[in-house]
TrEMBL record:
It comes from Thermofilum adornatum. Keywords: Cell membrane, Membrane, Transmembrane, Transmembrane helix. The chain crosses the membrane at residues 12-34, 54-76, 88-108, 128-150, 185-205, 217-237, 244-263, 269-284. Gene3D superfamilies: Amino acid/polyamine transporter I. This is Amino acid permease. InterPro entries: AA/rel_permease1 (IPR002293), APC_superfamily (IPR050367). The keyword Membrane applies. GO terms for cellular component: plasma membrane.
């Protein structure tokens, strides 16, 4: 339908989600601990949590920063991007970190069973007196809606990236086609088919965990893109502090990529195939013409 409609939908879902997080972590957390008190016992890495499990969780947590990538992908269609994009990035990173730390603090302060460990925010909502059951149901609904918003952001991003790559000759010319509303419908259709294919394969494969696989693939693609961006910062910036930041970011991203390669066997194989397909498409085409 268009970028404006997509952004309006995302704004609504994100506003509801932030309000829910405030209700669970702020109001609900305060009420719960007023009646039960604080007894913070963070798990010990190596004893309560195996080191391998902790490192695996770190690689999955990377997907929390999907918002940063979505911001950069939509920058071309953002008014006053030089001011809007940095502000949005700082807000996204700050909110993600704040919610993660607050959630971890509250969850580590109360007894947690296996179900609550799998669904931590719903489990925390259940502990809120009187409204806990209804609040947990609402948290589940918001989890669905915020994932829908995230998928919507992904559609915006992938269609714009494919359009830009086609414009510079890195993808077939067909990806440049747009509808009357300015929507790159070919890009959206192609990647929707790919996503649908993954879901169908998962339906027939009981051993394949789709959520973990998609998180692995996203993280592989994102970390390689972040490495490109970090190296570009080192190469293009004249500011010494920015160059140092780029070097540190590159080292951190290479470390994360190493963890992904060792800890995600299915994602490792599919990511390798994905990169090989991309390289094949690149070398089969004429070199891009930059105007």
């Amino acid at each position: 339908m268009g970028i404006r409609e997509s952004v309006r939908l995302n704004k609504l879902f994100v506003a509801l989600d932030l309000a829910t997080l405030f209700l669970v972590l702020g109001v609900g957390g305060s009420i719960y601990f007023f009646f039960n008190g604080f007894s913070w016992k963070p798990p010990s890495i190596g004893q309560d949590v195996p080191v391998g499990n902790f490192l695996y969780a770190v690689t999955i947590a990377m997907a929390s920063y999907v918002g940063v990538e979505a911001i950069s992908q939509a920058a071309e269609e953002t008014s006053n991007a030089s001011k809007t994009v940095p502000k949005a990035t700082y807000l996204t990173v700050s909110l993600t970190l704040l919610v993660a730390l607050a959630g971890a603090f509250f969850i580590a302060s109360s007894p947690v069973n296996n179900d609550e460990a799998l669904h931590p925010f719903a489990g925390l909502a259940l502990k809120v007196p009187i409204i806990g059951t209804w609040l947990a149901l609402w948290v589940g609904l918001m989890g669905f809606l915020i994932n829908l918003a995230s998928a919507n952001s992904g559609v915006i991003g992938v269609s714009r990236v494919a359009y830009s790559m086609a414009r510079t000759g890195l993808l077939p010319e067909g990806f440049r086609r747009i509808s009357r509303r300015g929507v790159p419908y070919i890009s959206i259709a192609v990647f929707t088919i790919i996503a649908t294919g993954l879901i169908i394969v998962n339906g027939f494969s009981t051993s394949l965990h789709l959520l973990e696989l998609i998180a692995s693939l996203y993280n592989f693609g994102a970390i390689v893109a972040y490495i490109y961006a970090s190296i570009s910062l080192v190469k293009l910036s004249a500011n010494k502090q920015e160059k140092l930041l780029g070097i540190l970011a590159t080292v951190a991203c290479i470390f994360m990529l190493t963890l992904l390669v060792f800890l995600h066997p299915e994602g490792r194989i599919l990511a390798l195939l994905w990169f090989l397909v991309g390289l094949t498409l690149y070398f089969l085409k004429d070199q891009p013409v930059h105007k």
